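Amino acid chain
________________
===
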Amino acid sequence: MKNSLLILTLIFTLIFTANAQTPKAELAQLISQDWAFRMQEYPAFAASLGYESDRTKFAEVSVAAHERRADFWRGILKKLEEMDHKSLDSEAQVNYDMFKFMLEDDVAQVEYQSYLIPWDSDSGFHSTFAFSANDFPLNSVENYEQYIGRLRGFKKYVDDHIALMRLGIKKGMTLPKIILENYEKGMDAYISENPEDSYFYEPFKRMSKIDKKYHLMLQTEGQLAISQSVTPAYKALSEFIKNEYRPQARTTIGAIHFPKGKAYYQQRIDYFTTLDISIEEVYQVGLEEVARIRKGMDEIIGEVGFEGTFADFVHFLRTDPQFYCSTPECLLKEASYIAKRIDGRLPQVFGKLPSLPYGVEPVPDEIAPRYTTGRYVPGSYANHQSGTYWVNTYDLKNRPLYNLPALTLHEAVPGHHLQISLAEELKDLPDFRQHTYLSSYGEGWALYSEWLGQELGIYTTPYEEFGRLTYEMWRACRLVVDVGLHAKDWTREQAVDYLASNTALALHNVNTEIDRYIAWPGQAVSYKVGELKIRELRYTAEQELGDKFDVREFHYMILKNGSIPLFTLERIMSQWIENQKKM
C-alpha cells in the first residue's frame, strides 16, 4: 500500500541521505524525504492522491505548525546548497531547479506570515472545503463515514483559521477593507437551517451503491454533522467577517504596507515570474506593451469604419445586443462550438496531444457573482474525471461573445487543458513536480495560446480580433495595475479606470479583476511575463534555425517537462536550439 511505502521511504531517506554516493542520488533522496513529510502534514491531500491517509483530518494551520514545516524545509535547503548540483545531468538539473525554487518560496511564505490571510477576493479555505465535497469518493459505507468525519472536523478547522486571522488583524495582515463588502455572502451560501437542504447533504441523496440498511444511519449522522459542525462553522465565519474582520481590516491597499512590505512584494514578483526582474521593470514593460497593443486596437477600429473615439467604440461593444447571449445555454453552446473548432486544428501545430477529454460547464452558481469570466478545472483518468472548461454565465450582459474565442483558447485548448493534461501523462517525474503549477509557465502558455489562435485561424471577425487584443491588453494592464496598487499607492478607482479605459472588458469583469489583484499581490503579472518569454524563445528559435524550425517540435519542447521555472525553460530551449543547428 502507498502508506507503507511512504513510511519506508521516509525511514530510508533519513538513514541514507548523508551517505548518498552521487549528487543525483542525494537529490532523489531529499525529494523523497520532503514528499513523505508533506504527505504526513497534509493528510487529506495525501488521501486524494491514493495514499492510505485519514481523510477526516485537516492540516494543522497554527503558527507553530507553519514554523515547524519551515524549519524542516530550511534543513533540506541547506543540503541542496551544499550539493554539487552542477554535475547533475539535464533531467536531474530540472528537478533541482524546481525543488529548490519551491522550497525557497515555502519558507518565504512562512517568514512573511502570508498564511495569516487564508483567502482572497473570491475564494479561500472555506470554499476549498466546499469544492472538495464533490471530489470525495463515496462508494462504500466506510467512505461515507470518512465524509461525515470530515464534516465534523470542519468547525475546529474554521476556529483555527479565525484565531490566525485575529493575529493577522493585530499585525496589519488582512485583506483590504475596500474589497470586503458583502464578503460574508460567500459563507452564507452554505448555511442551511434544515440540514437536508444543505449543499453538503447532497451526497446522502444519492446512495444507490450503498446497502439500503445503512441509509438511515448514515443520513442521520450526516444531518448531525451538518447541524452541529458545518452550519455553525459557516455562521461563525460570517459573523466574524461582519463583526471583527471587516471593521478592523486595513484601509491601505498595497502589499508594500505589510510588515517588510517592499521585500514581500518583490518576493511575490520573483515567485510569480520565476525571473530576475524588479518591480519597476515590470511596470515599464507593462507601459510599453499597453502602448503597442493600443496601436493594434486603433487599427481595427479604423478597419470596421467606426466613427468616434476609442471610448465610444468600447461603449458600443459593451452595450450592443449583437455581442451578447440572452440565455446561459446560448453562451455555453457558443463556447462549445469554438472549442470543437479549435480541436480540429490542433494537429497543424502540435505533434502530441493529450488523451484526456474535456467538457464545458457553467461556473457554479454559489461562486459565480464574484468569480472570473472562465477557468479550467483539471481532471484525471485516475479520478474518473475529464477536464472542465468553466464559463461564467452569471450576468450575461457582461459576457461578450467577441472575447469568447480568446477565453476558450486560454482555458481549454491549446491552453490550460492541453498543457496540464499533457503534463499529467509525463512519466518518471518526482511526485512534487506532478502536483506543482507555476503561474508564469502555465498562464504564460495559456496567453501564448491566445496569440497562437491567429495562426490557427480561430478569430473570424475584426471584433473577435479586437477581443483577442483586449484580452492581451488586459494582461499588459495587469503589469501596470499590479505594481500601481501594490508599490505605488494607487487607489482602487485609479486601477479600475486604467483597466476600463484601455480594454473592452465588461465593467463587472473589470471590478472583479481589480479586487482579485488587490487580494493576490504579484500573481497577475505572471501571464504577460510568461507569454513574452515564450514568444521571445520562439522568435529566437525561428531566427537561429531558419528552415530547420519546426513549430510542432518547438511546442513539444516547451511542454515536455510540464510546469517549470522560466529560467529553466530558457536553458532547455537554448540547448535545444544548439542541438538543432548540428542536425
Remarks:
- The CA atoms of residues 155 and 229 lie 5 Å apart.
- Residues 2-111 form one domain.
- The chain has three domains: 2-111, 125-251, 265-529.
